[in-house]
């Protein structure tokens, strides 16, 4: 399925649309044609909404001019494309669902890159594991692994020793998961290692002598974040004892010493390039009252540039509840960015969650033209230029408050067109439109708002209820 084309002066593009989108499509294509120097024509199909077209139906109604070199159809035609390709002897380009995004077809945006590669390991901590049942613990660990965690970290209770720690470790190891343990209790660490844990967090002067006997990799930390001498002493002791180590000079929160701790990571990478390094990024995400994605992005960018190849995070506080999923996506972005010496922009919108990257808009003239072209009583909702617009035959309402718009609608004939189903649907959609305006997001009627990697697909309701199942002439 072809979605991009390299425009040439000899090309003639035939754009296919429905009656409602003709004005906006013509306006959009005119700008692109002038910019990219190609000829075009607009094929307005005998159907109101382009989303209702099917490949078989379209093949019967297409009538491109003889000079056409490419046909560009809406992105709604995602099934039955081989049938359309075979029946039309001209190359078919499958564009976006929204004609305002047609620039992408002509290469004005960067192609999505392969984001499979990464080299930062995610260690996801489950806090206070001894307070959980084995079943709840296993369920939570599986969720974190599915979100992208490479190692499940068992957070112990510092106030009481967990006699059953081996059972928690063995449960995950038997399930094929890699496990670490977060404890300063030497007995717990030894039991965890004995049952298959591959990493112990953390080791300083208080427990480094016992670490010699565990037979697993450990995370070395200073006795105090600013105590560089103890850090060096702990590293030296464990190194001479041939205990495999990764180093963590400790990330401190804003207000306590964030900048100095970042400098310590840079110094540690400079002074100990032969050792792996870990950053406990949860120290910042959990203690910074802001959505976690941006914080995770900056910290993983620092890690990628410094060569810190493992991070420890957790999802205790609500604003960090998707941190593991965020880190899994972000580590791929920063890997690509650093490897190719490019900013992490125009790669994917997965972690642009609160606001959208761009907002193509209708002009007032286009909205008026759309309103004047509607001949049926089905409602169209737009969220444009700070206003919610409600359109139908002989109805053109706009405002910022859905309640007021609906009250105005009830004064318009025919009043029997607003039944309970319509009222619920309009309230649902206008609430989404209001959220989109408040946050700076695109609103497309009958589609989910785009929350990046948190987006939940939404079933179409308007097209199924208010229109016939098959396109009609």
Automatic annotation (TrEMBL):
Q: Which domain of life is it from?
A: Bacteria
Residues covered by the Pterin-binding domain: 103-368
The GO annotation for biological process reads: pteridine-containing compound metabolic process
Q: Which InterPro entries match?
A: Dihydropteroate_synth-like_sf (IPR011005), DUF6513 (IPR045406), Pterin-binding_dom (IPR000489), PterinBD-DUF4346 (IPR025595)
Kindly list any coiled-coil regions of this protein: none
Protein name listed in UniProt: Pterin binding enzyme
Q: Which organism is it from?
A: Novipirellula aureliae
Q: What is the lineage of its organism?
A: Bacteria, Pseudomonadati, Planctomycetota, Planctomycetia, Pirellulales
């Amino acid at each position: 399925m072809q979605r991009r084309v390299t425009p040439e002066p000899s090309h003639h593009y035939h754009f296919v649309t429905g009656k409602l989108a003709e004005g906006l499509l013509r306006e959009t294509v005119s700008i692109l044609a002038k910019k990219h120097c190609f000829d075009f024509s607009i094929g307005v199909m005998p159907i109101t909404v382009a989303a209702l077209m099917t490949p078989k139906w379209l093949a019967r109604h297409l009538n491109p001019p003889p000079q056409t070199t490419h046909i560009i159809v809406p992105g709604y035609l995602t099934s039955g494309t081989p049938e359309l390709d075979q029946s039309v002897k001209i190359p078919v380009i499958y564009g976006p669902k929204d004609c305002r995004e047609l620039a992408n077809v002509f290469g004005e945006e960067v192609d999505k890159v392969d984001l499979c590669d990464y080299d930062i390991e995610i260690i996801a901590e489950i806090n206070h594991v001894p307070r959980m049942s084995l079943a709840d613990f296993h369920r939570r660990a599986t969720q974190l692994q599915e979100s992208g965690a490479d190692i499940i970290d068992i957070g112990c209770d510092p106030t009481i020793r967990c006699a059953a720690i081996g059972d928690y470790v063995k449960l995950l190891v038997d399930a094929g998961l890699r496990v670490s343990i977060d404890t300063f209790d030497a007995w717990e660490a030894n039991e965890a290692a004995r049952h298959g844990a591959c990493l112990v967090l953390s080791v300083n002067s208080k427990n480094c002598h016992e670490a010699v006997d565990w037979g697993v990799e450990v995370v070395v930390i200073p006795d105090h974040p600013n105590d560089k001498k103890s850090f060096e002493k702990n590293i030296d002791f464990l190194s001479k004892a041939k205990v495999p180590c990764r180093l963590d000079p400790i990330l401190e929160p804003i207000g306590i010493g964030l900048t100095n701790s970042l400098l310590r990571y840079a110094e540690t990478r400079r002074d100990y390039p032969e050792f792996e390094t870990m950053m406990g990024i949860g120290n910042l995400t959990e203690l910074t009252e802001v959505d976690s994605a941006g914080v995770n992005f900056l910290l993983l960018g620092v890690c990628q540039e410094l060569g810190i190849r493992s991070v420890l995070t957790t999802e205790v506080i609500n604003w960090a509840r998707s941190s593991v999923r965020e880190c899994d996506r972000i580590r791929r972005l920063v890997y690509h960015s650093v490897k190719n010496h490019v900013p992490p922009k125009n790669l994917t919108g997965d972690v642009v969650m609160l606001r959208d990257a761009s907002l193509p808009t209708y002009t007032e003239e286009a909205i008026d033209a759309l309103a004047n072209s509607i001949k049926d009583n089905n409602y169209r909702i737009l969220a444009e230029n700070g206003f919610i617009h409600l359109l139908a035959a002989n109805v053109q309402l706009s405002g910022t408050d859905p309640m007021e718009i609906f009250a105005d609608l009830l004064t318009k004939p025919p009043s029997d067109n607003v039944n309970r189903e319509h009222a619920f649907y309009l309230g649902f959609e206008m609430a989404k439109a209001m959220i989109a305006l408040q946050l700076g997001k695109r609103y497309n009627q009958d589609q989910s708002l785009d929350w990046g990697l948190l987006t939940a697909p939404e079933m179409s309701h308007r097209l199924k209820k208010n229109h016939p199942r098959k396109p009609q002439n």
